Amino acid sequence: MLMVGETIRIALLRFEWEKAMAATDKFLRLDRLRALVNGFGALLDQKPIEERILAEGSLLLADLVRHDDWLPPAFAAPNVDRYQQYLLHCDSRARFSVVSFVWAPGQATPIHDHTVWGLIGILRGSEIAQSYIRPNGLPIVNAPPCRLSEGDVDALSPALGDIHKVSNALPDQPSISIHVYGADIGAVHRSVFTTDGAVKPFISGYANEALPNIWGNDC
Ligand SMILES: [Fe+2]
């Protein structure tokens, strides 16, 4: 059982931590995320072909992940139990969604698909992506693993190949990537593929219940 003094000390530490987090949030450049959201909205308003979405969208995402001064700590928190997918924004017509993907050391996805176009930008740390094809139902690697580092942007789509396995490349610290998908990705019916040929449907959902406020920032 904790002594009273220890309880008070922990409460004070928590108060100081919450105060520090609030101060941090106040100075975050959430306008950068707002610019990405506005940029994708304007791009998709033109109903472009997928090739143009990926090309111009990559530039928008590269603009965002070249800065690491905007992601609130709540959406950058690793979880020792599993990697986290935090929703940062979803278009009102679900034409696109933006998420932060947070990996603790040693964490990796299973082999999975997306069924929609996606862009992946590395904000912090490094990831290894291994792509697969399924010519006869069994997933087999079709290229060397690709290491993505801070500032890098990668693209995927069913047309290009959208089956992969992703892992944190860093053994001793979290990595964070920002993804933009051509749907409300947390609600998309997708599949996990095992090396014995099994196909398991899944819907990812999101780890968070509240979104960052990107509209009230005066920057
Ligand atoms: Fe993925």
Backbone structural class: alpha+beta
Bound molecules: fe (ii) ion
How does CATH name the architecture? Sandwich
Number of helices: 3
CATH class membership = Mainly Beta
- Beta-strand fraction estimate: 25-35%
Mean pLDDT equals 91
Query: What is the number of strand segments?
Result: 12
CATH topology: Jelly Rolls
Q: Spans of 5+ residues with little confidence (pLDDT < 50)?
A: none
**What shape does the CA trace take?**
globular
Summarize the biggest pleated sheet: 5 strands, antiparallel
Structural topology:
Elements: H1 4-26, H2 31-45, H3 50-65, E1 84-90, E2 97-103, E3 111-112, E4 118-124, E5 126-133, E6 140-141, E7 146-149, E8 153-156, E9 164-168, E10 175-181, E11 190-193, E12 199-202
Antiparallel strand pairs: 1-2, 2-10, 3-11, 4-8, 4-10, 5-6, 5-7, 5-9, 11-12
Helix pairs in contact: 2-3
Bound molecules: fe (ii) ion (FE2).
Fe (ii) ion (FE2) is lined by residues 112, 114, 164, 166.
